[in-house]
Design a protein that fits this description.
The complex is a heterodimer of chains A (about 280) and B (about 290).
Chain A: H1 2-7, H2 15-41, H3 46-53, H4 56-89, H5 95-101, H6 104-107, H7 110-120, H8 128-133, H9 142-167, H10 170-178, H11 183-212, H12 215-221, H13 231-240, H14 244-275
Helix pairs in contact in A: 2-14, 4-9, 4-11, 4-13, 7-9, 7-12, 9-11, 9-12, 10-11, 11-14, 13-14
Chain B: H1 7-17, H2 21-50, H3 54-63, H4 65-98, H5 104-111, H6 119-130, H7 135-142, H8 151-162, H9 164-177, H10 180-187, H11 192-221, H12 224-230, H13 240-249, H14 253-287
The chains are: A mainly alpha (about 280), B mainly alpha (about 290).
Chain lengths: ~280, ~290
């Protein structure tokens, strides 16, 4: 079938027109604007570029963005797997309602999420008040950033794992049970390896999204130099000082990292499709 | 002697392979805890804060002229962005799914590119593009066309951010549907436009609508990219999310959350529509 399809001739009309418009629109909206990052960074020369992207404040922001996005992605992997499991396998009242609400972090504007978490965890907020008594500060700390990023990445993980989990054949689990495996063994040795590619893909997506996230983070982060400044905020503050070259240098590094992650992800997906077909 | 499995024993087996009840209750409880902390508390907080000073302050905050101007700008942006990206989505999906050509995989990857770009960078690239350093930008400036710190800038940054939504929804759908129906119509003498209007469009209508809703939701809520290009001029280049931010940074929390509650309402509407669409979607695809 696959062989036949690749040899199939194009007989439908409109290829030139639709392809032409696709390439034109893609270039106008995405490719040409994105290339500006390169065109603004290259005239800088190598040394000023290295100087700009290795300034202590910039390095601190990269470190913060990566570590918080990583923690958030790991947390999302666990919370997302749990949610997908409960929503696919169990029956209880209100399930459909919860299922629908999984998409809320995606639909809710990031700025709204940002002010919500900042208010919730402020020293006089609903959760912040109690936590302050226990000497835990969430606001203006890396923990606060992780909380905002967990919220943002959550739907990616649940929505990727749900369909995979739905397709798992229950007979395999029953066979494992008949052969004497405990429930936990079945989960660890049979289900988890099957879910692993989806888990990896979706938490990488959450991670990538977390590195670039801005709106939900800046309110709770407090943006203290060297401490709670995320990488996108560094771009923002360089722009505010009209340092366009510096802003695009910081952006270039961030872009290269995101793109290479996207490529790795594509690779993983292809490998995954080969494994399971 | 082997016993025939009766329905009773069969159901016993099924009971045993599903998780024991205490485990189920524990896991559901754990999930509820997560939902309370990350979904219900933030949602409740928005309304509690919005109404903390009563109905009159709430109504005043959302009908005040700056808020109305912001809402108008946001709706204008959505009204331009969604049709443009929807039209592109259909065109690109047609080119990709109905024809074979070299470099299809690369093109598909390029379509996803905006997803990998931080919203702040999405704003930055348009500032760089039309900033006076680039020939094209200075040309626009000389001819009195203002892009940055004005509505076109907001629209174009939003176009970039929401670029993949429709096309991403359509490609898998149209790939699954194949091209047999269209080719049959062609051999029966239908013209290109007729094929599209009478066969392809009805087949993809739900997927198209679904992608447009996702695209619209993101256009309403986009913050980072718009924040870079807008310049935050009240009453002129302030979208609703930016207005929420300004009110919040002025410590006008009641007004900020009041305006935010409109966005929450729209988000809940999106989620509701999404669920409804998915049901229709499944019904539709089960027919095929």
């Amino acid at each position: 079938m696959g062989l036949f399809q690749t040899k199939r001739r194009n007989i439908l009309p409109g290829f030139g027109l639709s392809m032409g418009y696709t390439v034109f629109y893609l270039s106008a909206i995405v490719i040409v604007p994105l290339s500006m990052i390169f065109f603004n960074t290259f005239p800088m020369g190598w040394d000023p570029f290295v100087h700009a992207v290795t300034a202590p404040r910039v390095l601190a922001s990269y470190r913060l963005s990566f570590s918080t996005a990583l923690f958030a992605a790991l947390f999302d992997a666990v919370a997302g797997l749990l949610t997908a499991w409960v929503l696919v396998r169990y029956r209880f009242p209100g399930k459909q309602f919860l299922d629908a609400l999984v998409d809320l972090p995606f639909a809710l504007p990031t700025a709204v999420a940002g002010i919500c978490f900042a208010t919730l965890y402020s020293p006089v907020g609903w959760l912040g008040e109690t936590l302050t008594k226990w000497n835990i500060t969430i606001i203006n700390s890396a923990t606060g950033i992780v909380i905002a990023l967990v919220f943002i990445g959550f739907p990616f993980v649940v929505r990727t794992i749900q369909p995979v989990l739905e397709e798992v054949e229950r007979e395999i689990e029953e066979a494992a049970h008949c052969l004497g495996a405990t429930r936990w063994q079945t989960f660890r040795k049979i289900l988890l390896p099957h879910l692993f590619p989806a888990l990896l893909t979706s938490s990488t997506l959450a991670f990538a999204r977390g590195i670039g996230e801005y709106g939900s983070v800046i309110f709770i982060a407090g943006n203290l130099p060297m401490k709670t400044e995320i990488a996108p905020l560094m771009i923002m503050s360089k722009l505010d000082q009209f340092d366009y070259a510096g802003a695009s240098a910081v952006a270039l590094v961030l872009l290269l990292i995101s793109f290479s992650m996207l490529l790795v992800l594509n690779g993983v997906q292809e490998w995954q499709q080969k494994e399971y077909r | 002697m082997l016993k025939q499995p009766t329905p009773e024993t069969a159901s016993l087996v099924h009971k045993r392979v599903s998780d024991p009840l205490p485990v189920q209750i524990f896991l559901i409880g754990l999930m509820l805890l997560f939902f309370i902390g990350f979904i219900f508390l933030p949602l409740g907080l928005v309304f509690a804060q919005a109404f903390q000073k009563g109905w009159s302050v709430y109504l005043e905050s959302i009908t005040e002229s700056y808020a109305v101007e912001a809402l108008k700008l946001t709706l204008t942006t959505v009204a331009i962005v969604v049709p443009l990206n929807a039209f592109f989505g259909v065109t690109a999906a047609w080119a990709i799914t109905k024809f074979n050509f070299v470099g299809k995989a690369a093109l598909k990857t390029l379509l996803d590119l905006p997803f990998a770009v931080s919203p702040v960078i999405a704003g930055l690239i348009f500032v760089l593009l039309v900033g006076s350093r680039i020939p094209f930008g200075s040309w626009l400036g000389e001819h009195g066309i203002k892009i940055i710190f004005s509505t076109p800038g907001i629209v174009i940054a939003t176009l970039f951010v929401t670029f993949p939504f429709v096309v991403r929804e359509l490609i898998p759908l149209m790939e699954a549907q194949g091209r047999d129906e269209e080719e049959a119509a062609l051999t029966l003498g239908a013209r290109g436009w007729q094929i599209f209007a009478k066969i392809t469009l009805p087949n993809i209508s739900w997927g198209l609508l679904y992608g447009m809703i996702l695209c619209g939701a993101r256009s309403i809520g986009e913050f980072g990219a718009v924040s870079v290009v807008s310049g935050h001029i009240r009453g002129q280049t302030n979208t609703v999310p930016l207005h929420v931010e300004i009110l919040y940074s002025e410590y006008n929390f009641a007004a900020s959350f009041a305006v935010a509650s409109i966005l929450v309402f729209l988000a809940l509407l999106t989620v509701g529509l999404k669920v409804t669409m998915e049901k229709k979607f499944q019904k539709n695809s089960s027919h095929h």
